[in-house]
Amino acid sequence: MTGEPFVIKTGGAVLPGVSLGEGLPVVFLHAGVCDYRMWEQQMALAAEMGWRAIAYDRRGYGGAESPDEKFSHLDDLEAVLEALDIQAAIFVGCSLGGGLAIDYALRHPGRVIGLVLIGTSVTGAPWTATQAEEAIEMAEEDAWERGDLDLLNRVQAHEWLDGPRGPSGRVGGAARALFLDMNARALSKPPLTQEEERESAWPRVGEINAPSLLIVGDEDFTALVDRHEHLSETMPNAYALVMEGVAHVPSIERPDLINRMLEEFLDAFSGDDDDDDEDDAE
After folding, report:
1. Tens of pLDDT, residues 100-145
2. Residue 161 contacts residue 175 (beta carbons within 8 Å)
3. Which of 146, 150, 255, 282 could be a cystine partner for 41, CB 3.0 to 4.6 Å?
4. What is the dihedral of CA 133, 242, 91, 212, to 10 degrees?
């Protein structure tokens, strides 16, 4: 990815990232089976639209390095923003990245311009699974207990990229190659056993007033689709979309669709639509 690379040191950790473009910041937070490379096409779009796109690898992912020390991903996010002199931003998060964005919005509501949450986790949210979903979770657990990281990676690709109820290999090509590479890097990292537990956000999501775009794929876990519905009914300024035939990582599975949704969301803040109307009137 072109752009300006950076490295943030927080505690004993080294967190690499990239900044692309100029303007108001859009901070991209990756999923727990990916690293910041999952956002390449969305970052390019944001930069072309006149925003400053920023993404980084959290501890345990991508190129990040960290000792096994007490830490919080939320504190690390604050350290990144402080180091980059970011006072407020739009946050785009997928899965665990979305959960981190929600926690940050609850801690610093005045610093969140808007949220895009894709298949988001929510700290403290309930989890249920269908029989088919439980079967793939058991396969994942078996691969983990056997210490077969290659098998675990392939099972998780089925679980999160293809979708737990879809056929294995449903998503192929460059998207699958990227997923397998990102997740392999995460699986190869030494375990971090001292992450601080964050307060439950589930009872408080209705406090988030920032304009929010909620996206989920209908091939994702049913618990995440149900969660999406709950958030759409609970968050006062949320607009919700369900993507047909897409699972948990749509930014690499269907970047064309995600880019279209992101472009419309960012346009609402930039005033581009108003400018276009004025141009048409002339």
Report:
1. 999 999 999 999 999 999 999 999 999 999 999 999 999 999 999 9
2. yes
3. 255
4. -130
Which residue pairs, CB below 8 angstroms and at least 24 apart, start in 146-152?
A: 149/184, 149/187, 149/188, 150/184, 152/187
Cα–Cα dist 259/262, whole Å: 5
Euclidean distance between CA atoms 269 and 264, whole angstroms: 9
User: In whole angstroms, what is the distance from residue 253 CA to residue 177 CA?
Assistant: 11
CB atoms within 10 A of CB 203: 12
The b-or-e profile of 121-135 (16+ CB within 10 A means b, else e) is bbbebeeeeeeebee
CA dist 197 to 175, 234, 243, Å? 32, 24, 32
CA distance 54 to 260: 19
CA gap 243, 140 in Å, rounded = 25
Residue 152 to residue 135: CA distance in whole angstroms = 14
61, 33 in Cβ contact below 8 A? Answer: no
Is this structure's pTM higher than 0.85?
Answer: yes
Q: What are phi and psi of 64, to 5 degrees?
A: -70, 145
Q: With the C-alpha atoms ordered 9, 14, 20, 26, is the resulting torsion angle positive or negative?
A: negative
Element (H, E) at 103: helix 96-107
Strands 238-243 and 4-10: unpaired
Domains and CATH numbers, the chain: 4-127+190-281 (3.40.50.1820)
